[in-house]
Each structure stands twice: as C-alpha cells, then as structure tokens.
Amino acid sequence: MKINLVGTSGSGKSTLARRLAAELHLPYIEMDTLYWRPRWQGTPDDLFMAKLDAALNASPGWVLDGNYNRTRPVKWRDVDLVVWVDYGFWRTFRQAVGRAIARAWTQQELWPGTGNRESFRQSFLSRDSILLWTIKTWRSNRTRYEADMRDPRYAHIRFIRITCRAQAEALIAELKSAL
After folding, report:
1. Is residue 42 helix, strand or coil?
2. Sign of dihedral through CA atoms 171, 173, 174, 179?
3. Does the pLDDT value for residue 174 go beyond 90?
4. Which pTM was predicted?
C-alpha cells in the first residue's frame, strides 16, 4: 500500500502518518526531511524530486507525509490512497499554536542534521511564521484538495477526507483489517 497524507500545516497529518506507518508496518517518509537543509534552506527542485523518487522506490509500500504540490507527478504516480486531514480551521490553528510553542520551548531539531529549530520569534513575530502560513493556506488547501478529488487526472487514486478523529480511527481499522 502506498499512502500520501496531505493537509494544512498543523492539521495533524504527520501524527496520523506516523501512526498509520507503524500500524501497517510500512516505512514512514516525511517530505520535510527530504526538503529542508541547514539554516532553513530548501533543496532545489531537481534534487528534491530525485530524493523523493528514490525514497518512494526504496520499498514496495510506504506512508508519505506532505503536500509539496509541485511533487504530484512523482508522489501521486503510483499512490493508492491520498488521505486528506481536513479538520476545521480553529482546531487546526489551535494544534499549530500548541506545536509551535512546544517546539520553541524544547528547541528540538526538526529534521535530523539540519540544526533547524523553531523559536518564539520565528513562530509568532515573523513573516515566515508557520502560524501565518497555516492561516494563509487553510482555505486554499481546502479548495485545491476538493478539486483534486474530482480531477479526472487523479481518477486512479482513492481519496479519503478525514474531518474528525473517529474517521481517522475507522480508517486505521479498515486498513489494518485489509492486511
């Protein structure tokens, strides 16, 4: 099974993706780990696509965590299931705020070897704030994923929209029973 979890930053897609990977005994691939380099520098697209392609081809099944819309030709080429984590705005924003506070407080490195850490200043007072990003992208992500679900180019993909925890639990149970 090849699964891509998508959704607005703060929605809980990474948490659900890690859990799905563990429950289904599949490799977990985090797109942010492939993309981000030290000092918050992104990976150039050609190298990013090559890294993503190599990660996806390294095993017959996987759980991929991340949006990066420009990667669709690679990540959705052979995907079986796209899980859209689409919780309401206030829940998503509250989760993003909680995560930003926790990361700034603990100063955890976000992606191994990058040294990238979030700070209170970056999270709450910067134009590059992840919270501002969540606010700016929540509505446009909904519009885009609703359109994707109807797009004939993606007719080969099963889409599931998760809007509450009960649906996430039901999905996990369904996928586990299919093993």
Report:
1. strand
2. positive
3. yes
4. 0.94
